[in-house]
Structure formats: C-alpha cells, structure tokens
C-alpha cells in the first residue's frame, strides 16, 4: 500500500445500503441503543440499523448484539461506540494489543484471521457492485491469499514522539480522531527488530533530554521517529523527523546508537517544520552510516532511501510480485512499462523475462534509486524516467517505442484520468493492475473495461489485522 502515514485514517462510508435508511429517526448524542450487527463496513467497523437508520460501530462484529452510545448524528447515518456486547460472535478473539481499539492499524485484530480473509474478498465484491464495471457479475474474484503468521510483518514504524505530563518520553500513534499520542511499547504487527530499535532510541532521547515537539506551542525539536528494517539483510535505518534543522546532542545520540544498536546502518534527519498533517518534510540530512539500507527481494538487492516506497510487508512482497508476473505471462519479446515504479521493485524483478523494461515515477529520489538498483543487480535492459506516465508514454510512442505489456501499481487514489486515457489509446496487449484500494480500482474498471476484459481479481493480504487489501487484476485486450 502506497501510504507514508502509519496511522490509518477511516474514510467516510460510501457503499450501497442493503436496507433503506430512515433519516427521520429521533436520536440524541450519548443515547444508548441496542443494535444487531449485520456486516462489516469498508473500514472494518460493524454496520447495523437503529430503527432502520444506518449506524457504524467500530469494534463490533457481524451477528453480534451490542449496546452502543451515539457519538455522531448525520442525516443519513449514525456512529456509535460499543459499551457492552450482549451477544458475541463465534469468530471474536482477544486482540494481542491492548490499544487495538484506540489507534488505527488494528481494526480487525479481534476477528479470527480466516474471517478477515473472507471479509477482504467481500470488500472487493462490494466495490464492484457499487460501481458496476462492465460484466462485473461474472468476474472471477478469487479467495484472498493470506499469511501463515498474520503478525510481525510491518517493516517500518513511524511513531509520533511526545513528552507526557510526568516528564517521560512516549512514542506511538495518534488516538483515533485526536492528536493525543498513545504510547506503544509493543506492537504485534511490527517486525520485532523495528520495535527493538524504536524503544531503545526513545530511551536515548529521554536520557539525553532532547526536547520533543509540542503541538500547542509549535515548539520543541523531535516530532517523529521512523525505523525501517530490511527483512532479508537486517539493515536498519533510523530517521529523526524534526521541527527545524536543529537536533541537540546529535553526536551523543549517534555514538550511543552505534554502541548499543550495531544493526542500525543508516541514521538520517528529515526536517518538517510547523503544524502539518504530513509526516515527511522536503529536506533530508545524512547524519551517520549509509544514506540507504539494502533489502533483498527474490535475490535482487534494492537500496532504499528514507522516503523510498516499499511494500510494508516484506514477507508477502515476493508473493505479490510473483502474482503480477504470472498474470502478465511475459516472454522474451515483450516491452514492459512499470508505471508508478517507485524504486523499481516490480519491473526489475520481471526484467529477466522481457526484452526491455521502462518505468516512470514522479518522485525524483525514487527514480534515482531505481536506476541505481538496476546497476547494483547488473540489469542492463531496464531504465527509469522522471515524469508522469501519461506524459512519458506518448513521447516514447512518438519516438517509435511501443509497449506490449504494462503493470501499474498506483497509490490509494487509483489511476490518474490522463493515464487511463493513455492506456486506452496505447492498448498494450498484456496489462496487470496492482491495487491497494478496491473502491478506486472499481471506479477505474468502469473505463478500462471499454478496451479490456477482466480475467480475474486476486486479493492478497499484505496488511493483516487491518481492513486493507491488495488486489492483482489480470486483463485481456478486447479484439
């Protein structure tokens, strides 16, 4: 999933109601209601009806009867907070994380994993039925591919850092709907090495009395600590995100990290001044070690700079890329375009199957990394370019270079309209869409199915315990 923010922010629900809603129902904030949960919504919350009015209740599971207090009243729906579960689902389990109900990223941790996989397949079907792309009723939506162990998979932690009322430094994620940081000394979905380094570094910050950020006064230095670990090399990168260029006791901090955490091979600083909803600023400063860490995927080495995109789940990433390769059915005569390429992870893993790979991205650092990664792996038939796919592709075609295969892996907003138009004009014979958002995928399919048939959609679970699902779509060009 291409999303720099570790905090998952629920979006407004927008799916077809299976029963008519009753906007005229009288209800008050704080009123306690009893609701039978019918299904899960797109953000993993329980969905039911109070006097025929739609109500969303986070933490409630299908078939459960819950008592909930009304927290939000809208013309077409209500929101509630679970107070008591009168009838529990047979699939409810005890979450491993005590704060699972407080922060994003754990929405499904109280649901048995087999049911999480079924829910994610249903999410894809739900999106298709909402947007009605051509022939969607007959699409082959395959069962979700899951993990053997759906924990300890996240290779990156981006934790907000604050000082609490007792003077202790805490690090974690924002409590849902607030800017209150929930301290997270443990995290069951993080790769253990990221948490080991995170907790050790937080202790160092406290010992050295480095001022942490205060949102109310826009003062203090340290806002966020980002720790990324490479699963197959155990390289670790630590990035201190600060309110200004200033980072006091920097040398002491670097020396202690070197003494206590030899696995940390890269220490960087990113400057992100003032109040902003974004984690990253524009300026990145090299403090110690290498400027990148190296991860290996399918035997290939990839250098990763601090802001370079990599799937959060390194364990399942090779499986995802194998699925994309299988769907493309490449051969030695193919000319492959790797759109939204990032550091080239998809295109470079497929380069040995084709005549040539060309990729593009709008992040300059990613393109630099991608071309460097091609050199590192002695891949001489792949090249990456800075720019938008909808601009670059027509230029290549005007110069006589025509792609026969295309793989796209866009961010959650889906494909840009100009790129959709370009795809429909270019009409590469082999086409695979890797999606991290079933809703924008379904919207894009409405237009893409003008020229392409959908062979199948294969959901794969890259983020267990959350409502996110990755989907690999295989297309066949209409004759």
Write the layout of secondary structure elements.
Layout: E1 32-40, E2 46-50, E3 53-57, E4 65-73, E5 77-87, H1 113-131, E6 156-163, E7 169-174, E8 181-183, H2 192-207, E9 222-229, E10 236-242, H3 250-260, E11 264-271, E12 283-289, E13 293-297, E14 300-304, H4 317-328, E15 335-339, H5 345-350, E16 356-361, H6 364-376, E17 382-386, H7 389-398, E18 405-408, H8 417-426, E19 430-435, H9 438-448, E20 452-460, E21 470-477
Parallel strand pairs: 3-5, 10-11, 15-16, 15-18, 16-17, 18-19
Antiparallel strand pairs: 1-2, 1-4, 2-3, 4-5, 6-7, 6-9, 7-8, 9-10, 11-12, 13-14, 19-21, 20-21
Helix pairs in contact: 1-9, 2-3, 7-8
Describe the structure.
With 479 residues, the protein is α/β, with parallel strands linked by helices. The protein is built from nine helices and 21 strands. It has a seven-stranded mixed β-sheet with strand order 8-7-6-9-10-11-12, covered by helices on one side. A hairpin with a 2-residue loop joins strand 2 and strand 3 (53-57). The longest helix is centred in the first third of the chain and has 19 residues, at 113-131. The radius of gyration is 23 Å and the shape is globular.
């Amino acid at each position: 999933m291409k999303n720099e923010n570790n905090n998952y922010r629920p979006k407004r629900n927008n799916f077809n109601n299976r029963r008519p809603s009753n906007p005229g129902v009288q209800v008050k904030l704080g009123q306690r209601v009893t609701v039978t949960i019918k299904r899960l919504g797109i953000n993993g919350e329980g969905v039911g009806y109070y006097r025929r009015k739609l109500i969303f209740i986070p933490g409630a599971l299908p078939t459960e009867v819950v008592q909930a207090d009304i927290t939000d009243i809208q013309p077409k729906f209500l929101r509630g907070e679970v107070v008591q579960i009168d009838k529990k689902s047979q699939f409810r389990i005890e979450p491993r994380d005590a704060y699972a109900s407080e922060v994003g990223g754990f929405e499904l941790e109280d649901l048995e994993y087999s049911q999480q996989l079924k829910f994610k397949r249903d999410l894809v079907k739900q999106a298709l039925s909402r947007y009605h792309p051509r022939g969607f009723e007959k699409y082959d939506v395959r069962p979700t591919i899951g993990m053997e162990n759906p924990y300890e998979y996240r290779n990156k932690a981006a934790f907000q850092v604050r000082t609490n009322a007792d003077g202790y430094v805490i690090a974690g994620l924002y409590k849902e709907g607030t800017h209150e940081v929930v301290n997270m000394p443990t995290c069951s979905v993080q790769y253990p090495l990221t948490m080991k380094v995170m907790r050790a570094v937080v202790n160092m910050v406290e010992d050295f009395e480095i001022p942490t950020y205060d949102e109310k006064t826009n003062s203090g230095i340290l806002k966020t600590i980002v720790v990324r670990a490479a699963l197959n090399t155990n390289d670790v990168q630590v990035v201190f995100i600060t309110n200004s260029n200033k980072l006091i006791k920097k040398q002491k901090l670097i020396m202690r990290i070197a003494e206590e955490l030899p696995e940390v091979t890269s220490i960087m600083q990113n400057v992100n001044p003032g109040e902003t909803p974004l984690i990253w600023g524009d300026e990145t400063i090299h403090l110690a070690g290498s400027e990148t860490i190296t991860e290996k995927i399918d035997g290939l080495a990839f250098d990763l700079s601090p802001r370079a995109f990599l799937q959060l789940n390194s364990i399942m990433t090779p499986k995802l890329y194998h699925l994309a390769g299988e769907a493309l059915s490449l051969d030695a005569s193919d000319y492959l375009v790797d759109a939204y390429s990032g550091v080239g992870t998809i295109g470079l893993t497929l380069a040995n199957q084709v005549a040539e790979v060309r990729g593009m991205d709008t992040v300059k650092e990613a393109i630099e990394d991608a071309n460097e990664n091609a050199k590192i792996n002695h891949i001489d038939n792949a090249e990456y370019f800075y720019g938008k796919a909808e601009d670059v592709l027509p230029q290549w075609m005007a110069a006589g270079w025509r792609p026969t295969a295309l793989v796209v892996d866009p961010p959650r907003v889906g494909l840009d309209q100009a790129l959709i138009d370009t795809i429909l004009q270019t009409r590469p014979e082999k086409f695979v869409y890797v999606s991290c958002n079933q809703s924008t995928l379904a919207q894009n399919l409405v237009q893409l199915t003008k020229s392409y048939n959908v062979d199948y959609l294969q959901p794969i679970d890259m983020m267990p315990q959350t409502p996110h699902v990755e989907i690999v779509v295989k297309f066949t060009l209409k004759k």
